Every structure is written in C-alpha cells, then in structure tokens.
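Let's sit down with a protein and look at its sequence and fold side by side. Which protein we use is up to you, so please pick one and set it down. Label the sequence line and the structure token line clearly, so we can match residues to local backbone shapes. Go ahead whenever you are ready, and we will take it from there:

***
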Amino acid sequence: MPPLMVFLAGLAVGAGAVALAPALAPDASRQVRPVLRAGLKLAIAAGSAFRVAAAEAAETVEDLYAEAEAELAAERAQPAPQAPAPRNRPARRKAKPRGTRAAP
C-alpha cells in the first residue's frame, strides 16, 4: 500500500475515533483510546515514509538537473568545427555549346 494511502487510512481512523468517542460515553472513549493511538501512530509512520520518499525523489531530480547542466556547459565549451577555407581557383571561362559556330 502506498505511504499516502496508509497515511490517509490512519488519519480517517483517528478522526472517526475522535468524533465517536464523546457520543458513545466516557467508558467507550477509554476503550477507543488505544485505537485512536494506533491510528495516530500509523499516520505518523506513513508521514515519515512519505517524507523520505519525497526527499529521495527531489534528490533524483536535482541530480538529473545537475547532469544536464554540466553536459550543456561542456557542449558550450567545445569550439564549433570550422568549415574548410575555400581555395582560390582561377575563374573558368564559359564553355561554348558544341555544334555552334561563331557569327562572322
């Protein structure tokens, strides 16, 4: 059962016990007290487990962010590849189409 569900179940048991205890009579409230205490202990344990899970998830996200940031910094630090410089060639003359003669 996920920690949040355990927490909510413990909270519901505790709230129900608190709501019913005065209505049932003082003797019944003494009998409900251990149930209430168990519900509260369950809620505290679930809250602690949820806090640990949230901290681990936050740490994982922080690690991923730091890795991505480092990769971007490394990519920016590398010089971009340069295109080869064009060679200077003499200009070519246009070729005359074959089969044509120059005008006299």
About this structure: Helices lie at 3-24, 26-77. The chain has a mean pLDDT of 80.
